[in-house]
Specification:
By secondary structure, this protein is mainly α. 36% of the residues lie in helices and 6% in strands.
Length: 135
């Protein structure tokens, strides 16, 4: 699978899974047998979890991180844009060009999260933690 398609697939899967379910982690011994696709998905998930996208921190850093991944995977720079009304709260817009055979698809997600105060969590909310088989 082309790297840009693998990266886009991982971003879409993470967007859906993180918004609707708890993702189950692999046990440490299983982690060694992950496929390249699974490792990429895990790396992207880790990167996104560890970026503070609360209202005060903003979403731009996460948008830029995912834009960089898509560009490095082969998306044309002109098809990957970080845009928005405020420098701290930018969004990622990606055009995935087809051949005009099928109808277009629009994926919409969000990068921001509610304020996550360290004192309200048993661990740092912006540190990727694996416990008991769950992230």
């Amino acid at each position: 699978m082309k790297s840009w398609l693998r990266t886009l697939s991982c971003l879409a899967i993470i967007n859906v899974a993180s918004g609707s379910a708890i993702l189950q982690a692999h046990t440490p011994q299983d982690s060694k047998s992950l496929t390249a696709h699974q490792k990429l998905a895990r790396d992207i998930f880790r990167e996104l979890v560890e970026i503070n996208t609360t209202l005060n921190a903003g979403s731009t850093k996460a948008a830029e991180a995912m834009a960089a991944r898509l560009r490095s995977a082969g998306f044309p720079a002109g098809d990957v844009q970080v845009v928005g009304p405020h420098p701290q709260h930018m969004n990622l817009v990606v055009r995935f060009r087809g051949k005009g055979i099928h109808r277009p698809i629009l994926f919409i997600g969000h990068l921001d999260v509610v304020e996550a105060l360290r004192k309200d969590w048993s661990s740092d909310p912006f540190t990727f933690v694996e416990t008991g088989g769950y992230f």
